[in-house]
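Structure, all two chains, one model.
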Amino acid sequence: MTGNLQTIYLYSRYERLWHWLQMALIAILLITGFEVHGQYSLLGFHRAVTVHNFLGITWLIAFAFFFFWLFTTGEWKQYIPTTRKLFAVMKYYSYGIFRGQPHPVPKRKEAKHNPLQRLTYLGVAAVLLPLQMLTGFLYWSYNSWEAWGLGFMNLGAISLIHTALAFAILTFIVIHVYMTTTGHSLFAHIKAMITGWEDVDERATIEAWEKKPSASNPQKGFPDVF
Amino acid sequence: MRSKLTVWLMMGTMAICCAALPEADSAETAPGRKMAQQAAQSTTKWTTTDHSKLDVLNKKFESGQEITEACLSCHSEAAGQIRETIHWTWLSPYDDGGETGKAGYSVNNFCVSANKMEDKKCNSCHIGWNGKEDGINCLLCHGSKNVQWAAEFKDYHFFKEMGDTEIADEIQKTIQEGVKSVALPGRQNCGNCHFYGGGGEAVKHGDLDASLIKPQKTLDVHMGLDAQDFRCTRCHSTTNHQIAGRVYSTPASVDRKSLVEHDLAPKIMCESCHTAKPHTSGHKANDHTDKVACQSCHIPQFARAHATKMWWDWSKAGRLKDGNPYQEKGAYDRAVYKSIKGEFRWEKNVTPEYYWYNGSINTLTAKDTIDPTNPVRVSWPVGSRQDENARIFPFKVHRGKQPYDKVNNQLVAALLSETLDGYWKTFDWDDAITRGHEIMGLPWSGELGFVETRYVYPTTHMVAPKESVVNCGQCHRRQDSRLTNLSGFYMPARDQYRLLDMGGWGLVLAALAGVMLHGLGRIFTNGRKKED
């Protein structure tokens, strides 16, 4: 695989910012959240709650921006699920990767996610996170339930769902972080998410503007979304 | 370049987020504190009467009743008012049958009963000259000189009859000075009884003892001489001599009005001055005031100055040394054993126990049937999670063992006083109970047993400065939560779904193990590939 690579600009500035902001928020939300759930004592209950609540609201606002970005740029199409080559990708990760075979679905600007990623990220972004936001918001607004006519709800049940989803997110992160090491080198994918430039298989169709600027290919700006 | 920019952008965002984090302990004064300070801005008391100049008080007094008559010659309605109060009747105003109260059949697990006020020793705290018989002693509450009235009159008559007029006049002068020292009730007046309930300082209450005569702010933010310097009556407001704040079985404290809304709230509670949302806006504690009483967090421990009695075992009473009663002292210089009373335990800086409480306490009477197979609740707070007037409240729980009738399953009220040849003189339970129950008209089978009992005191005095408030984590934690015993509601950090937590962490660990195996697989197969 090595040697046949070319570098394309895959992740826009906003995508990278959102990714790492989301990483930081989720990390602290998980750490403080499990402390609020009484799993350990780190910041102290009071501070853990204060930080968790604040970052939860921050998250809601940040997610609204993401939502806006997703639909104004048409990037939501990256999340349309497909079964095409899904089996091939699963086969690759469970077999081909050990044989040194190439990835069956190389990354492209218009298809950043392979079928397995599409399915997973759709589940995370459209189901897991919204549900977590909803239960988190309800948990946070517990004292207003009566006034909002939601007095029938049960804090224990809301907490149960919120905690269960937190475990699901943590599980996702474990696998997600591991998957970043499956590029052509251990840190290739992480580097791409920092710089925006991803090394992809040369067989991928690359538009001229996607190519990294060089002396022979001078370029002034990038088609960043922002 | 590009990556640096991204990093800076991220750091900038995080910095903004962190800067905007609300501070837990804001320098801003809590609105509830401001309101209370406004409400309590004291005006100097003024009066048009100097009692020491009144002719009616400048004369010789041969008896207590004469003093009372002098008072009533101006304050014509006072006696009528007093006779309606609990301070006089020792009966619950909410029980028409006259069953509950010290003068009724109510019992506790200290000296158990006053035997319908026949056990004269208990009457030393009654506001009459001699129980309910010889009129009201106004000066117990309204005299600013601490005079031992009974002893002074006894001595006065003794020397007068002896013909020693010089000493008799001297004593009469003390009496007259006492009479002329009329004032509004001070801490000492209330404290003479309420600090010493149960036969000694801090025996009954963990939050009321003589340290409140001159407390520091660290002990009591309201009464502290270096704080608000309130006297008892600042909160225990009075209408027609009825003093607010006494706890009886009914009614519940449904009236949670604030003075700010309504300046005639009959029962002064924290909220009366501090409002229902006393903390700085956005502080989670404001959301707790509907279910958690202020006292729960603001009185982290009781008995902070003097140790209070936590255990009293009557079953150990009656041991004698060489035929004589004795006592042994222990920690805090308090008796841990007395032949006349049994075994005691004292504790200082005690963490309260918490119960749902709607302002009402139920107490057993000597007529109630008990179940001696379990510790008996002689008194208990009324309220539950479902009761909208109930809040979580801190209590001192006094435990002990006390005598009961094994056949009738009733707590028994032995006659105790030495002067009446009670148990304290005879050490004969059967005789003391027989005579005690004769007075009260109660049955006694003669089968004596001892049963473990508990008795509750709401903890409401000695409010600590905010620095020592109970922090969130002392209740919101899995182990040793202050609220471990309260159930029926979900409480973050304290409660868990064991199955979910086990399953959740199991899933995370399984994922970890999976990716590690996958990674190892990659290392292993790649190594083999190189050999090809």
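The first strand of chain A starts at residue 5 and ends at 9.
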